[in-house]
Amino acid sequence: MGVVGNVRFSSLDDGRGLEVYAPNTQLFAGDSYIVVRTRTDAEAVRHQLRTAIDAVDREQSFFDVHTMDARIQRAIWQHRIATAVLALFAVIALCLAVIGTHAVTAQAVASARREIGIRLALGSPASQVVRLVMQRWLVAVVAGVAVGMLGGGLVAGVLARALGMPAVPDLLLPAISPILLAGAAAVACYVPVRRALRRHDLIDALRPE
Q: Quick one: which of 144, 156, 164, 142 has its CA closest to 87?
């Protein structure tokens, strides 16, 4: 006698009901399966099993023979489709976020051209002005990315429980998203600042409106 952990027997949607394991010799079930673990090719083992069963009883049925990978794929195909659709929307959302971050940051930095011109006219080094502007806006972007990652982790946990799947962290998208957003923000900061440092742009920025 013993207690085993909870398992999902036929699909990921199975509830965690009460199950009893019994030896096949004591409690024979008509829908029993025999599981064979092998290190060789599955097709070769299938023919060997057929030969071994025929040697004992040629009338014994032998059907529904599949590898464990094939059975798992057949059991989770609906979840795979749902995951693919969600991943597609996630990629679209990430692209829109990158475009939006770049546009908003570039517009905000471009609106500070007059301030940049005044700082340069008062003698501030160009490198110091670039560093100041990039620090100002990148801090806001990093804070937004941190909040977004926290919210994304919470939503991922909720979706995993709703789909009946283990909440195994996938580090690929959470690692790519901050890099892309920070890169877009850095480019959006740097390009307008460098443009504002040009002599004719600096003169235009200092002209009274």
A: 156
Which candidate, 18, 22, 13, 53, places its Cα nearest to that of 36?
A: 53
Check the CA dihedral 40-41-42-47 and report its sign.
negative
The residue with tokens 């003169």 is 203
Q: Domain spans of the chain?
A: 31-75, 79-206
On whether the CB atoms of residues 101 and 181 are closer than 8 A, the answer is yes
pLDDT digits (tens, 9 = 90+) for 34-81: 888 888 887 778 888 888 888 888 887 777 888 888 888 887 788 788
Q: What is the CA radius of gyration of the chain?
A: 31
How many angstroms separate the CA atoms of 177 and 145, rounded?
8
Using 50, 70 and 90 to split pLDDT, how confident is the model at 164? Answer: low
Question: Are the CB atoms for 94 and 180 separated by under 8 Å?
Answer: yes
Provide the CA 13 distance to its chain's centre, in angstroms.
22
What pTM, to 2 d.p., does this model score? Answer: 0.60
